[in-house]
Amino acid sequence: MDRRIFLGLFPLAGCARKSQLPAPPANVVPQLLPIRAEPDRIFRTTVCSRPFRAAGPRLEVERVSEKVVVHNYGHGGSGWSLSWGSSAIAVEKAMVHETRDIAVIGCGALGITSAILLQRAGAKVTIYAKERPPEVRSSRATGSWTPDSRVALSNAVTAGFPALWEKMTRYSFHTYESYLGMAGNPVEWADIYRLSNGESRHEEPGALPFARYQDRVSDLTPRGQELAPGTNPFPTKSAVRNSTLTFNIASFSRQLVHDFLIEGGKIENVEFHDPSELSRLPQKVIVNCTGYGARALWKDESIVPVRGQIAWLIPQPEVRYGLMFNGVFVLSRRDGIVVQSMGAGEMEGYNNPSEVPDRKAAEAAVAIIKDLYSRFPQV
Question: Which of 11, 109, 125, 359 is the most buried (most CB within 10 A)?
């Protein structure tokens, strides 16, 4: 190859002047391709009951006959986001006992992260669960970083809970960093656009004072950036862009289960109906990660179901962003495009135990997004 051609294709480092490399504009919005929001592209509709506790997650130790039970459940809409940090606290409580043969009940977000952290602490772990991913409730989550979504009521928590929440949040966030860039993109960053036409949202009647602690960890994620008119393709008066962690739960769950099994972990299919049934387990220490199932198993009436429904649109690999518009949240994941109605805000689905999909509501949410893109610039 002619040396001049070679150098032309691959300039030597330091040869290009900075003046030849113009800085990108500060407020650039990349070309955003529209989401194909059509009802016939809904390939499934899933419903999940989030386990809300007014006092926040239960992280307590209880004795059941000769067993020591460490509870780790009740995270509301923050299960995936707080999983690693909450599980680290549960593991610390479990590992103070002499035994290193430990059981975990539940194979959802909290169960599998507790099991992995127990292994890292030197324990032999067996998971006992009725279901495993993708059948568990946490597999139906939106997959967005929401560490204080319905996690507690501000007037029901102890004085020390905000600091505990921050500890869990920071631990989880930094653990998720280690999954960035892995095959299958189990965790990645995505831009989320919050769109508005200037409508004011009034607090819904009977709204509860849900705790809000994001200001305590404002250094972890970028601040929202107001986009100037004409700098973005959205047909709305206002557009605010932010970047947040997102979880491709299908690949992430598969990765976690693989990591657990390859380190010698075991999963046994067992369904418990009463705490007395734990006596048949050989392990003396048990970490209870049953999520919403704890309401029935432990007769825990402090658990309140918060119903959440997702309409799943066929994936579009060319779409790598999310948005919030007119009471609907959309997130493009590798395994499908999440379309979730948030019409009643934080009270949407509160104390609604139904897990029956509502096709009409799913199509209504998709129709809102279709209307948005009908006014999108043609590409």
Answer: 109
| Cis bond upstream, residue 134 (ω within 30) | yes
Residues of the chain with pLDDT under 70: 1-27, 200-205, 378-379
Tell me how far apart the alpha carbons of residues 80 and 61 are, in angstroms, rounded to a whole number: 22
pTM, two decimals, is: 0.90
Residue 321 near residue 138, CB atoms below 8 Å: no
The full length of the chain comes to 379
249: phi > 0 → left, psi -120 to 50 → alpha, else beta; which? alpha
Indicate the SS3 state at residue 17: coil
Do the beta carbons of residue 123 and residue 103 sit within 8 Å?
A: no
Who contacts 190 (Cβ-Cβ below 8 Å, separation ≥6)? 243, 244, 246, 320, 321, 322, 331, 332
DSSP string, 73-139: B--GGGHHHHHHHHHHHHHHHHTTSS--EEEEE--SHHHHHHHHHHHHTT-EEEEEES--TTSSGGG
pLDDT, tens digit, for every residue of 225-237?
999 888 889 999 9
Give the integer Cα–Cα distance in Å for 325 and 341: 10
Q: How far apart are CA 211 and CA 77, in angstroms?
A: 12
Question: What is the number of alpha carbons within 13 Å of residue 233 lying toward its C-beta?
Answer: 15
